[in-house]
Design brief:
This protein has about 200 residues and is α+β, with helices and mostly antiparallel strands. The protein folds into two domains: about 60 residues, no CATH class; about 120 residues, 3-layer Sandwich (Rieske Iron-sulfur Protein), CATH 2.102.10.10. About 25% of the residues lie in helices and about 25% in strands. The chain contains four helices and ten strands. The strands form two sheets. Strands 1, 2, 3, 8, 9 and 10 form a six-stranded antiparallel β-sheet that branches. About 0% of the residues have low confidence.
């Protein structure tokens, strides 16, 4: 009886030591984890597709949004003519409006008593000149271009005069209105346009 029990126990021990057939073979099909998926070619393809789809969606949304440039107003009021001195470019609007208001006793062509609005951009390479009151000229610090207070260039590499903005008098409050949307170039004969100056000879 004891021997039979020992024999039975031996058989059980032998069965424990002998592996089951499926344990000798690797698992098939292999388990797919998130890491193995993204490391596979299929994962790479789907990732690229998702990125392309996202980029396309963003491009479409950007196209549907208006492309608005937030710029300061291009039309502004600059006070009354009597607020300015004769033959001295006024610099109160130089920084924020890039404009010199100049009340001239005589213009470049001999016209008496006019008011003009000059663009403060040098016509050479776009630098901002400085007003040199002691020398009665506007001088560019970049390459030495010089301009008269009328805007006419007379020294340095600047190829043409400064540009003028459209100016007018508001009939209601009598203030100067500068319209930067309209520019006038002397070399094209545009300074003869009545919108490029205010005639103060009859004021």
């Amino acid at each position: 009886m004891a021997e039979e029990q020992r024999t039975g126990d031996g058989v059980k021990d032998l069965r424990r030591r002998v592996p089951e057939p499926y344990s000798l073979v690797a698992e098939y099909p292999p388990k797919i984890t998130r890491r193995s998926f993204f490391m596979s070619w299929a994962g790479a393809a789907w990732t690229a597709f998702g990125a392309a789809s996202g980029a396309g969606t963003l491009a479409m949304l950007r196209y549907m949004m208006p492309n608005v440039l937030f710029e300061p107003p291009q039309v502004f009021k600059a006070g009354k003519p009597e607020d300015y001195e004769w033959d001295r470019p006024d610099e109160r609007f130089k920084q924020d409006k890039k404009t010199w208001i100049v009340k001239l006793s005589k213009d470049y062509n001999g016209r008496q008593k006019v008011l003009v609005a000059l663009d403060t951009t040098c016509t050479h390479l776009g630098c901002t000149p400085n007003v040199l009151f002691s020398e009665s000229k506007i001088k560019c610090p970049c390459h030495g271009s010089g301009f008269r207070f009328t805007g006419i260039n007379f020294e340095g590499p600047a190829p043409r005069p400064l540009e003028r903005y459209a100016v007018s008098i508001d009939p209601i409050d009598g203030q100067i209105v500068v319209d930067k949307n309209r520019k006038f170039q002397q070399e094209k004969g545009q300074w003869e346009d009545k919108a490029s100056f205010i005639d103060l000879s009859t004021a």
